Every structure is written in C-alpha cells, then in structure tokens.
Amino acid sequence: MGCCLLFYIQYPTKLMNSDHHGNTSTKPPADTVAQASEHVVDEAKEACHSMSMKVEDTVVRTREYVRENPVPVLLGAVALGAALGYLMILARRPEPTFRERYVDEPLSSARDALYAALAPVAQRLHEEYSSAREVAGKAMDKVHGFHPSRAADSWSDQIRRVGCNLKFW
User: Fold this and answer.
1) Per residue in 90-110, pLDDT tens?
2) Which of the residues 4, 155, 160, 165 could staple to 37 if both were Cys, CB 3.0 to 4.6 A apart?
3) Alpha-carbon distance 60 to 68, whole Å?
4) How would you class 36 by CB atoms within 10 Å of its CB: exposed for 0-12, middle for 13-18, buried for 19 or more?
5) Is the pLDDT assigned to residue 142 strictly greater than 90?
6) How far is CA 165 from CA 68, 152, 157, in A?
7) CB of 4 within 8 A of CB of 36?
8) Helices marked H in the chain — which ranges?
C-alpha cells in the first residue's frame, strides 16, 4: 500500500484524468489505487526481469574470463583466501591460560598500583636529589676558592681549639 501511495504522489497526472481547466474526473479513489498498484507491480516485474538479465550476462562473462585466464583467477582466489584466513586468526583472541589469569594479571595490576602510589615519592626524591646536588656544587665552588695557606691555618686553628677543649679527668 505504501508503494502505491508513493507512486500516486509521484505520478498524479497519469492516474487522474483532468481537462484543461484543472477539473478532475469523478473516478472513485479505489479505481485510482488499483491502477497505481497494477502499475507498481508491472514496474517491479520489469525491474526484476532486467536485473535477472544483467545477472545472467555477468555469469556468462565471468565463466568466459575464468576459462580464458585460469591461473590469475586461481592465484587471486588463493590470495583472497589467505588474506581472509589471516584476518580471522588476528581477530580471534585466545583464552588466557591459568597462569596468565591468576598470576600474571594480578601481579601486573599490583605493580601498576605500586608504581602509581610511589610516583609522588619518586618525584619528591628526584627534586631533593637535584637540590642536594646544587648545594654540593656550591660547596665545591667555595672549596676551590680557598687558598691552601688559609686552609692550613684554619685547620690548625680548629685543631688547637679542639685540643684546648679536651680535658682528661
């Protein structure tokens, strides 16, 4: 019924008899719908016949091509089959083994959780290491700035002070 209505909307001039003034004839709507449905059925039969002729023509041409070129067709079929087989193997996901399911996956999850928990600590240690390295670099610069004579004097002064402060009872 939907096809008939669609056809009636597309081709109203064929279904209605109208004169030059736009007056339509007094045909009952049932006759108009019947004509439209008959026309749709005829068009569908014609389309099916046309399609079957094209399919038959394609089958004949394909047979001729296969008879004339059997090696390329065979190689193409083998290549297509190999490609489809490879894709099927890639698409299939194997079931995890007992070890993978109950040992490897939990250990991997625990390791990931541990890394996530220790990441802030590692960042802080890295920052402190950088700070300590910077301070050590400054201290080394000061040591290199000392003159050996003044360093020897300061060491001897410190040893004398420590010696004075030591008391043996």
Assistant:
1) 888 778 888 888 889 999 999
2) 4
3) 12
4) buried
5) no
6) 114, 20, 13
7) yes
8) 2-10, 12-15, 29-68, 70-91, 98-99, 105-145, 148-165
Residue with tokens 């296969």: 66
Token pair for residue 139? 């201290």
DSSP state of 22: S
Contact call for residues 16 and 32 (beta carbons, < 8 A): yes
Strand partners, 24: 18
Q: Which amino acid, one-letter code, is at 94?
A: P
Q: Which pair of tokens denotes residue 43? A: 């068009």
- Residue 137 amino acid letter: G
In one letter, which amino acid is 12? P
CA distance linking residue 11 with residue 36, whole number of Å = 9
CB atoms within 10 A of CB 32: 18
Please tell me the predicted confidence (pLDDT) of residue 83. 94
